[in-house]
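By convention, the token line describes the chain's fold. To illustrate:
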Amino acid sequence: MPRTADAVAPVAAAAGVSPEATDRAVVYAVRAKGRIEETTVLALRSLRALAATIVLTHPGTLSPEHRTLLAGLVDDVLETEAEQFSSTSYAAAVERVRRRRAQTTEVVLTGDSWFGPVADLDPLFQRMADTGADVWDVVPPAPPRESFPEEGFPGVADRPWFFTVVRREFFTGSAWTRWWAEQSQPGERERSFASYVAAAGARHERAFDTERLHANDPALFAPEDLLDIGVPFVDRAVFTSYPPFLDRFAILASEIADMMGERGYPLGVLRSSLASCMPPKALNTNLGLLSVLSDHAVDAESGSSLSIAAVVHVSDIDEVDEVLRRLQFLPPGASVFVTTTEGVTAARLERLLEAWATTNAHTYELRVTPQSPGRDMADFFVGCRDILQSDEYDLVVKLHMRRAPWKTMNRLRYFRRYQFDNLLSSPGYVRNLLALFEKEEKLGVVFPPMIHIGYATMGRGWAMLQPHAKRLAKRLGIRVPLDVISPLAPYGGMWVGRPAAFRAMMTRRWTFADYDWRFQRRFGHLAHLQERLVSAAAGQAGFYCRTVLNHAHAEISYTALEYKVDQLFSTTRGWPVEQIRFLHRAGYTGYGGTVALARMFLRVNHPGVVDTFRPFYRLAWRGFRVVSAVRRFTSRLRTERGEKDQEASS
């Protein structure tokens, strides 16, 4: 049942409402608790000029911060006891409208299921004013849409109505009361409303002829066409659906966003809002947030207005000349902070930095930090915390040059090329990268895409750290959904970002001790966790991430990736979205042994049996791991004893 809430602000008289709208009300529904996004504020601002009364329905209690945000935009807030939107909240909200303003002639039932408006709404209302319809809407209500819960995209049982206008003759009649008294399945009320209106002897019309575009779900499957014929809204699902599903139907959300931008909609607001509620990798994919940059500067002065700090961790001093050469590509006046953990290394670095500083216009500071398993990440979040919390710098460039004796020479060489070429390829490239931040004020972090040549990162980017990541995100107050398979992350720990994008990560005052192996039980491998939570932390702060490549690596990466994907899909039928779903349902293949194949067969064909035996399987697996650990330990003891006996005999 709804709970009473005080009005946010009695603003109709001072809101500049047009004379034609003095008897119109809007009921705007929010789909989830605490999700008052910038796009919602933008929508309410447009609706404000068209309505004398706006009532907002919100699942749960509206926070004081959100009340402040909505001040001047809505007249009343209806808080419900549910955690998610329910269509029944519209009935209570309309009743509240009638009590507040008895002369209301029409009520708009809508909510945050769309982004927009991308055009002036006045012509729409003026065109429909002469229809004589008792009820009219903009596009057909969405049918039940395919969901992908195991991939992190669960179905939505009930969502705010798209845009339905109900006139006084209907919402004050007995048919309206009977409609809300009837039982209905979640999500079915909007879909069945038009037929109910007709059955009740009232008149229903649709503002746009969409039958020729798509008979079933034009809002999702024909968004470009809807924009072309003048529909001023874009369905939220165009941007928030499972990426392989959009891929199957060639729904290019990035191009639809560009169409919205051409019509004056602020794309920064769109991306920022999506970053706060979408898995970062899915957002990066759907909006095509990959930039392939040229080595020739589009504007030679780009980035000159930005104050830049570079934080560089160095443990491999033999290769430090390369990183110092790359730092010279930054605009003059950058502040360079070099961290290291060894006194001998620090002494050598000091001499190198003194000589380097005489040949460029950058300043430097050398910091010696404690030895820590956190390496460059500990130096960044602990040793350089003052830089991240300072308002002195617009951007922070994070680089490192550390030893990796476990990598082959080819892998190490390619890794460094991949990171440095895609962040600091040349002076012109750096100017183009910095221009992204100048043009897009909500762009938070830029880094290279997931490295996949020489590394088996794809498909296992979490590195078994996802449970730790969820706990740490909750502790840091990060509510952005995490990607299920692999996160969008700067694998390799190098990026360019705004300090404000890391503030959510800094809510805990980290210490070097937090990175110690003894704390792994609490945080997992903290350095790797922080690396994988960068994009989610940025989204929590209202920033989105971009990935960047230079032309050479775009050619290398795409062709290698296309070939590998082609090979992987060669043994499964259907579209990629179906192939992926089948493989996920089958589960982990292991090394293709009898047990793994039997488990996969049961998961696909007899999932109930798997659910029954899963606890026993987990117990057996834990036992196997314990036995394996004991065997490794005893083997190591025997080896050490044998070495000691050999030394004694010699």
User: Anything to note?
Assistant: Residues 1-15 have pLDDT under 50 and may be disordered.
